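Q: Hi! First time doing this. I have a protein sequence and I read that you can turn it into a structure. Is that right? Here it is:
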Amino acid sequence: MGFKMGIVGLPNVGKSTLFNALTKTAAAQAANFPFYTIEPNVGEVGVPDARLDKLAAIATSKQIIPTRMTFVDIAGLVKGASQGEGLGNQFLANIRETDAIAHVLRCFEDGDVTHVDGRVDPVADAETIETELMLADLESIEKRRANLVRKLKGNDKEAQQQDRLLAEAQAMLEDGKPARLVEVDEEDAKAWTMLQLLSTKPVLYVCNVGESESAEGNEHSAKVAEMAAAQGNSHVIISAQIEEEISQLEDEEAQMFLEEMGLEEAGLDRLIRAGYELLHLETYFTVGPKEARAWTIKQGTSAPQAAGVIHGDFEKGFIRAETIAYDDFIACNGESGAKEAGKMRAEGKSYIVKDGDVMHFLFNT
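A: Yes, that's right. Below is the predicted 3D structure, encoded as structure tokens:
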């Protein structure tokens, strides 16, 4: 699995430009007026991981298959979206389907690009979006709780759990805070996720700066960093214009361009890494002469669950996992060397997969 990140923001903050660059496509035409992006554009990209190339080189794999990440470019939001203003209802429905939200915030000054509120204030922009999500959640909760009344009278256990969680979310929202701040017990985790409240989505702030500020940021991005830290959220600094230019270049040219701009890596890499950290994801590998492949899992995933990402039958009939740590695979120059050095381990059902593990699963059919 990869994960799906919704790219959101006020009109004219650079959402579609960033989406075009990230997916190397012009499917989302960037335009200098609100609501140009009406249908959510969806693009899949391979997650860059230098480890995969090294593993493939050692195993002489014919094919390299990275794990995938999906970006969804969602229509520009305006104040009042929770009440259906602009494309509000559609915007909010599209967000529900994502795993996380990337708030693209305008951190650049440009008189030729209009701002919907006539000023550049990324913190206020972030608050506008957060407020609309919270208002939409409050409206949704009130409707849902009203619909649960009959089941509650019949002492329906599932309805009681749902109503209790909705009440906790409602109290948090009425206190002016997003529902993601509600502390949820492990036994309630699945039911909580099923509520699909908008303000529970993990948030990554994307500071869109000018080309000359792409390495260090500016005073606007510094304010966003301060806000993100106070909230316990993450932020990345990206110049959408630079990313768009890089997306049109060959790999070698792109690397030279990055070096000239004083950047170590493309914004895509930073954005994906921040997204992985945000959702507590990690990668394991399967490697052989046919293919070297990366698989995305949640941190804390057991070996049978990791096997199930490949195919459900692997999890059902799981016997054991032959496992080599990435560093050992490289140091021993592959599986044979790792076996001879005693670095291949047979792990059972209780094993928690670690980031970078190279795995081969044995299972009953």
